[in-house]
Design goal:
Radius of gyration: 20 Å
Distance between the termini: 24 Å
Number of strands: 8
CATH topology of the largest domain: Rossmann fold
Helix content: 40-55%
Number of helices: 11
Largest sheet: 4 strands, parallel
Shape: globular
Strand order of the largest sheet: 2-1-3-4
CATH architecture of the largest domain: 3-Layer(aba) Sandwich
Order of helices and strands: EHHHEHEHEHEHHEHEHEH
Length: 337
């Protein structure tokens, strides 16, 4: 019987000062041939927030809450900023940890939202002699707690908007069509959106595109959607960043700083729903996901897709063809989304 002796919180990471912005962006874009001049342009987004991404502070709050809720030692490692996974796995090894469960702060299945995290864990393991084994917890896009947080966030935004039946625009990070077609990403997002929207009218839009213009990505862009809704005279709109678990930079910049002010300037009555962050229900959800693996607790899931698999199949969410991701097989267990 498999046993685990720690929980590893895994996230994207972000800079915590101006001097960290460029090194962070270099890690994020490693191997893509992007110049420092172009990265400096992207870094201007962080400059508006003092060079600090909100994500690490949000993860510290989540970490503190998890350490009270989970009956295992809890560690934290990032893909692209301190604490880096290689350093965290070294610490875990030195503490005698042999096998850990990993909670990744990404609710959906895609290359960038799931498999790439597992690949980065593997790279860190190869660099740390004696590193612990790590098993990722399932994606949680249709977990009742995750859905409930967004339902309540929509209701709070509706009260601010003062419109009985607002139109909902759900947003998620756009990805290349080649990536979207080889994962359940869009299908899962639409399932969660339907669960959150209930009887309200809604559509799914995309944000934070970062690829070259000649590569097709998921559309429409949220900004274009809000312009259209303003022109149509829609009485009230709530933007719901359903693809994100916390209010990190891509939420507070792409939505709060750019898209929503531009829409309001066109006369659109629009509010944004909050993301779950370290809501106590999310903390309890993580504890439940751990209990599923350690003690066989029930695996709740809303909608008709059922709970996601634990072990990903070998061909799950493959990388875009332009990426070099030659790693050993991730898992030989198979299962449905």
């Amino acid at each position: 019987m498999t046993t685990w002796d720690a929980l590893l919180l895994v996230s994207f990471g972000g800079p915590e000062g101006p001097d960290e912005v460029l090194p962070f962006l270099r890690r994020v874009t490693a191997g893509r041939g992007i110049s420092d001049e172009r990265l400096a342009e992207v870094g201007e987004h962080y400059a508006q927030f003092g060079g600090v991404s909100p994500i690490n502070g949000q993860n510290r709050a989540l970490l503190a809450a998890l350490r009270k809720a989970v009956d295992l030692p809890v560690y934290w490692g990032n893909r692209n900023a301190a604490p880096l996974l290689v350093d965290t796995l070294t610490e875990m090894r030195d503490d005698g940890i042999r096998r850990a469960l990993a909670y990744v702060t990404s609710a959906y299945s895609s290359y960038s939202g799931c498999r790439q995290y597992r690949e980065d864990i593997q790279r860190a393991q190869r660099d740390v002699a004696g590193a612990p084994a790590v098993d990722k917890l399932r994606v949680f896009y249709n977990h009742p707690a995750f859905v409930a947080c967004f339902v309540d966030a929509v209701e709070s935004a509706r009260r601010r908007l003062r419109v009985d039946r607002p139109y909902l625009v759900f947003t998620a990070h756009s990805v290349p069509l080649s990536m979207a077609r080889t994962s359940a990403y869009e299908m899962q997002l639409r399932q969660t959106a339907r669960l959150v929207a209930g009887p309200l009218d809604w559509e799914l839009a995309w944000q934070s595109r970062s690829g070259p213009p000649q590569v097709p990505w998921l559309e429409p862009d949220v900004g274009a959607v809000l312009v259209r809704l303003a022109a149509q005279g829609v009485p009230g709109v709530i933007v719901v960043p359903i693809g994100f678990v916390s209010d990190h930079l891509e939420v507070v910049y792409d939505l709060d700083t750019e898209a929503l002010p531009a829409a309001r300037a066109l006369g659109l009555n629009v509010e944004r729903a909050a993301t779950p962050g370290d809501d106590p229900r999310i903390v309890a959800m993580v504890a439940d996901l751990v209990a599923e693996r350690t003690s066989g607790k029930a695996r709740p899931a809303l909608g008709d897709l059922g709970p996601s698999h634990d072990g990903c199949p070998l061909d799950c969410c493959p990388a875009p063809l332009s990426r070099d991701v030659a790693l050993r097989p991730l898992s030989r267990r198979r299962g449905g989304h």
